Amino acid sequence: MRLYQRDTEYLIKEPYLSRGRGYFNKGKVQIISVNESESKSKVVGSTVYRVTLWYKGPLLDGECSCPAFMYYGPCKHMAATGFALIYLNRKKYRSSVRSEHAGRQVCLKRLKKQIRSLLQ
Ligand SMILES: [Zn+2]
Which tens digits make up the pLDDT trace of 14-43? Predict the structure, then answer.
Protein backbone atom coordinates (compact mmCIF):
# COMPACT_ATOMS: atom_id res chain seq x y z
CA MET A 1 0.00 0.00 0.00
CA ARG A 2 1.13 3.50 -0.79
CA LEU A 3 1.01 5.61 2.33
CA TYR A 4 0.97 9.38 2.25
CA GLN A 5 2.36 11.60 4.96
CA ARG A 6 -0.78 13.75 4.99
CA ASP A 7 -2.93 10.66 5.66
CA THR A 8 -0.70 9.70 8.56
CA GLU A 9 -0.98 13.23 9.92
CA TYR A 10 -4.74 13.16 9.50
CA LEU A 11 -5.08 9.93 11.47
CA ILE A 12 -2.46 10.44 14.15
CA LYS A 13 -2.07 13.61 16.18
CA GLU A 14 0.76 15.18 18.11
CA PRO A 15 2.56 14.31 20.34
CA TYR A 16 2.16 10.76 18.99
CA LEU A 17 3.47 11.73 15.57
CA SER A 18 6.77 13.05 16.93
CA ARG A 19 7.16 10.14 19.31
CA GLY A 20 6.45 7.76 16.44
CA ARG A 21 9.10 9.46 14.32
CA GLY A 22 11.57 8.95 17.17
CA TYR A 23 10.67 5.25 17.33
CA PHE A 24 11.14 4.92 13.59
CA ASN A 25 14.49 6.76 13.69
CA LYS A 26 15.70 4.38 16.37
CA GLY A 27 14.82 1.42 14.16
CA LYS A 28 12.06 0.09 16.38
CA VAL A 29 9.72 -0.78 13.52
CA GLN A 30 9.68 -4.11 11.78
CA ILE A 31 7.35 -4.35 8.79
CA ILE A 32 5.95 -7.86 8.58
CA SER A 33 3.78 -7.63 5.48
CA VAL A 34 2.49 -5.03 3.08
CA ASN A 35 -0.05 -5.56 0.35
CA GLU A 36 -2.24 -3.27 -1.73
CA SER A 37 -4.57 -2.28 1.07
CA GLU A 38 -3.03 -3.29 4.38
CA SER A 39 0.23 -3.38 6.30
CA LYS A 40 1.22 -5.32 9.39
CA SER A 41 4.16 -4.46 11.59
CA LYS A 42 5.75 -4.96 14.98
CA VAL A 43 6.93 -2.02 17.02
CA VAL A 44 9.22 -2.49 19.98
CA GLY A 45 8.22 -0.27 22.87
CA SER A 46 8.15 -1.29 26.52
CA THR A 47 7.01 -4.55 24.95
CA VAL A 48 6.35 -5.62 21.35
CA TYR A 49 3.14 -4.21 19.89
CA ARG A 50 1.41 -5.27 16.72
CA VAL A 51 0.20 -2.58 14.38
CA THR A 52 -2.10 -2.92 11.39
CA LEU A 53 -2.75 0.01 9.06
CA TRP A 54 -5.24 -0.02 6.19
CA TYR A 55 -7.16 2.30 3.93
CA LYS A 56 -10.90 2.46 4.49
CA GLY A 57 -11.87 4.14 1.24
CA PRO A 58 -9.69 7.22 0.95
CA LEU A 59 -9.02 7.38 4.68
CA LEU A 60 -6.20 5.74 6.57
CA ASP A 61 -7.30 3.66 9.52
CA GLY A 62 -5.65 1.13 11.76
CA GLU A 63 -5.16 -0.44 15.14
CA CYS A 64 -2.46 -1.25 17.64
CA SER A 65 -2.27 -3.82 20.41
CA CYS A 66 -1.01 -1.30 23.00
CA PRO A 67 -3.15 -0.01 25.88
CA ALA A 68 -2.85 3.61 24.70
CA PHE A 69 -4.70 2.74 21.51
CA MET A 70 -7.52 1.19 23.51
CA TYR A 71 -7.99 4.33 25.58
CA TYR A 72 -6.91 7.20 23.36
CA GLY A 73 -6.93 5.90 19.79
CA PRO A 74 -4.19 6.21 17.15
CA CYS A 75 -0.83 5.96 18.94
CA LYS A 76 2.91 6.46 18.45
CA HIS A 77 3.35 2.85 17.29
CA MET A 78 0.97 3.50 14.41
CA ALA A 79 2.84 6.72 13.63
CA ALA A 80 6.18 4.86 13.68
CA THR A 81 4.76 2.29 11.25
CA GLY A 82 3.48 5.12 9.05
CA PHE A 83 6.95 6.67 8.84
CA ALA A 84 8.48 3.27 8.06
CA LEU A 85 6.02 2.73 5.19
CA ILE A 86 6.62 6.20 3.78
CA TYR A 87 10.35 5.52 3.93
CA LEU A 88 9.92 2.13 2.22
CA ASN A 89 7.85 3.69 -0.55
CA ARG A 90 10.52 6.28 -1.21
CA LYS A 91 13.21 3.62 -1.39
CA LYS A 92 11.10 1.51 -3.74
CA TYR A 93 10.46 4.54 -5.89
CA ARG A 94 14.18 5.28 -6.14
CA SER A 95 15.13 1.71 -7.02
CA SER A 96 12.34 1.48 -9.61
CA VAL A 97 13.63 4.67 -11.25
CA ARG A 98 17.11 3.17 -11.30
CA SER A 99 16.01 -0.17 -12.80
CA GLU A 100 13.90 1.63 -15.41
CA HIS A 101 16.98 3.56 -16.45
CA ALA A 102 19.04 0.34 -16.63
CA GLY A 103 16.29 -1.29 -18.67
CA ARG A 104 16.38 1.55 -21.15
CA GLN A 105 20.14 1.17 -21.60
CA VAL A 106 19.76 -2.54 -22.37
CA CYS A 107 17.12 -1.64 -24.98
CA LEU A 108 19.46 0.90 -26.50
CA LYS A 109 22.28 -1.63 -26.71
CA ARG A 110 19.98 -4.14 -28.40
CA LEU A 111 18.83 -1.51 -30.85
CA LYS A 112 22.39 -0.59 -31.75
CA LYS A 113 23.19 -4.26 -32.37
CA GLN A 114 20.18 -4.61 -34.64
CA ILE A 115 21.11 -1.51 -36.61
CA ARG A 116 24.69 -2.74 -36.96
CA SER A 117 23.53 -6.15 -38.24
CA LEU A 118 21.17 -4.44 -40.70
CA LEU A 119 24.02 -2.33 -42.06
CA GLN A 120 26.38 -5.24 -42.52
ZN1 LIG B 1 0.29 1.56 20.09
Answer: 999 999 999 999 999 999 999 988 999 999
118 CA from centroid of ligand 1 (Å): 65
- How many beta carbons lie within 10 A of that of residue 15, not counting itself? 9
Asked if pLDDT for residue 57 goes beyond 90, the answer is: no
| Residue percentage of the chain with pLDDT more than 90 | 62
How close is the Cα of 63 to the center of ligand 1, in Å?
8
For the chain, give the number of residues.
120
Domain range spanning residue 43?
5-119
Residues with CB under 5 A from ligand 1 (ion): 49, 64, 66, 69, 75, 77
| CA–CA gap between residue 55 and residue 47 (Å, rounded) | 26
Q: How far is the CA of 89 from the centre of ligand 1 (A)?
A: 22
**Count of domains for the chain:** 1
